[in-house]
C-alpha cells in the first residue's frame, strides 16, 4: 500500500515532469539550470526521491513558475478562466492600466491588455525587454508606437510585430481612450 507521503512525492514528481515537458526542456537542460543532475531529476519525477525546498525553488524558477505553483492541484495545461476583475494589474505610468491576461505558472507566450487614457504613454524614453517576438494589436482607439525612433500611427484593428529588443514606446495621442493587446513569445520580464 502507498503511504500519503509517497503519494504526494509522486504527485510532485508528476507536476515537475508535466511542466518540464510543457517547457520542452530535457532532464539535462533542467539539471544544468538547477545545479542538479538528470539522474536526480529522473528519480524526482518518478517519485523515487525527495528534493529540498532550495532545490524545488531552483526547479520552479528554471521552469518559469513559483514554488507554490509546483504544489497547486490544477493539472498542468488545463483550461483556467480569468475574470476581468481578477486580472493582475502591473504598475505602470499615470493614465495607463496594464493587465496580465495569460496566466501563470507556465505558458509559451504572455498576453497583456493595456488601457490608455488620452495623452498617456509608456514613458518619455523607449524601452526594451528580452529578445522575443512581440505583437501589438489595437483593440479600440488610436495610438502611436515608436519603434527605434520611427513613429507608426495605429487605429482599431491594426497590428504590428517587432522584436522586444527594439526600443519602443506607445502614446495615445487622441482625445479618446485606447485599448491594446501585447502578445509576447517567448515570455520576457516587462
Q: What count of domains describes the coordinates?
A: 2
Cα distance, first to last residue?
Answer: 48 Å
Question: Largest beta sheet, briefly?
Answer: 6 strands, antiparallel
Beta-sheet strand percentage?
25-35%
Order of helices and strands: HHHHHEEEEEEEEE
The overall pLDDT, averaged over residues, is 88
CATH topology assignment of the largest domain: Jelly Rolls
At the fourth level of CATH, the homologous superfamily of the largest domain is Jelly Rolls
Overall geometry comes to elongated
Strand order of the largest sheet: 1-2-3-9-4-7
Report the radius of gyration as a whole number of Å: 20 Å
CATH 2nd-level architecture of the largest domain: Sandwich
Number of strands: 9
What is the CATH level 1 assignment of the largest domain?
Mainly Beta
Total number of helical segments?
5
Helicity range: 25-40%
Q: What structural class should be given to the helix and strand makeup?
A: alpha+beta
Segments where pLDDT lies below 50 for 5+ residues? 1-6
Give a quick summary of the entry.
The protein has five helices and nine strands; from the N terminus they run αααααβββββββββ. The protein is of the alpha+beta class and 190 residues long. The strands form two sheets. A six-stranded antiparallel beta sheet has the order 1-2-3-9-4-7, with no helix packed on it. A three-stranded antiparallel beta sheet has the order 6-5-8, with no helix packed on it.
